[in-house]
């Protein structure tokens, strides 16, 4: 199996640069064609400008990946001096929200700070801190204004956002396209979101992820990545920037209407994420 995989890669590497792009496109298309659900992929190599797009402009649910736009919204408030990174806050269990995360287990009235909320939101995908951060950022409306200002037409917060109730029923907490969310991370990497300082803080937070058993597991542990994962029953997606030795590359793998809705390690979407990530690492580095 390993020999066959390597042989295929060797054959693809023999193409010229234009042929490589087209071959990687076909290679990934062949990997996703049997997936029981809808798949969207966008890949971009920041050094070579190589690009792969499979349903890259189709709207998918973000699930917890919406926490990246929320983080941008909080950083916008910090940049304007309306919030402080180490600002003291008091947790009230009235804002507790279940699912992933740790703050739901905090005791009522415990003191915390904004930097902890932001870190838990990204590192552990904490739902309670995410909803708190969404409110602190000015709500979904303000975050969506920022996304629009960045040229992102479809990347939006739906939950608890006036006027988006019907869209929320379709896509849940947030929505995006593979191309747009990858573009947002590219802008962050280049220091173009809010300010260079704000972008660097966002990137540092996204480089410290607990959920490393999916796409990240196919990348050597000594290579830095910035990422965010989003998972609900019928939709499992992942955003990853790899600071690879031969040049940074970003990819977004989105799925929806998934037949396999199990929460087991061998879920079909998880396997697809690992496979695509491994292919991209081998392709760009070897």
Automatic annotation (TrEMBL):
It catalyses: a beta-lactam + H2O = a substituted beta-amino acid. InterPro entries: Beta-lactam/transpept-like, Beta-lactam_cat, Beta-lactam_class-A. One of its GO terms (biological process) is beta-lactam antibiotic catabolic process. This is Beta-lactamase class A. Transmembrane segments: none annotated. Gene3D superfamilies: DD-peptidase/beta-lactamase superfamily. Pfam families: Beta-lactamase2. Keywords: Signal. One of its GO terms (molecular function) is beta-lactamase activity. The keyword Disulfide bond does not apply. It comes from the Bacteria. Residues 1-19 form the signal peptide. It comes from Aquiflexum balticum DSM 16537. Residues 40-255 form the Beta-lactamase class A catalytic domain.
């Amino acid at each position: 199996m390993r020999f066959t995989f390597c042989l295929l890669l060797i054959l693809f590497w023999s193409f010229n640069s234009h042929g490589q792009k087209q071959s990687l496109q076909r290679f990934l298309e062949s990997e996703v064609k049997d997936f029981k659900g809808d798949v969207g992929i966008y890949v971009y190599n920041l050094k070579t400008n190589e690009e792969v797009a499979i349903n890259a402009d189709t709207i998918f649910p973000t699930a917890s990946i919406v926490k990246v736009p929320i983080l941008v919204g909080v950083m916008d408030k910090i940049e304007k001096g309306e919030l402080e990174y180490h600002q003291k806050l008091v947790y009230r269990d009235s804002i507790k929200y279940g699912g992933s995360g740790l703050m739901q287990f905090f005791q009522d009235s415990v003191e915390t700070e904004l930097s902890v909320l932001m870190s838990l939101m990204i590192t552990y995908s904490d739902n309670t801190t995410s909803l708190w951060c969404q409110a602190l950022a000015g709500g979904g409306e303000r975050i969506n204004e920022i996304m629009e200002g960045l040229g992102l037409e479809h990347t939006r917060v739906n939950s608890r956002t006036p006027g988006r109730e019907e869209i929320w029923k379709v896509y849940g907490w947030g929505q995006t396209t593979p191309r747009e969310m990858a573009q947002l991370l590219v802008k962050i990497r280049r220091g173009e979101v809010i300010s260079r300082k704000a972008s660097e803080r966002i990137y540092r937070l996204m480089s410290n992820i607990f959920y490393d058993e999916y796409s990240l597991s196919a990348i050597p542990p000594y290579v830095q990545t910035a990422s965010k994962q989003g998972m609900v029953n019928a939709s499992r997606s992942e955003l990853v920037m790899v600071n690879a030795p031969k040049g940074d590359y970003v990819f977004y793998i989105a799925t929806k209407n998934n037949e396999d809705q199990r929460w087991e390690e061998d879920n079909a979407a998880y396997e697809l994420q690992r496979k695509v990530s491994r292919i991209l690492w081998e392709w760009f580095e070897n």
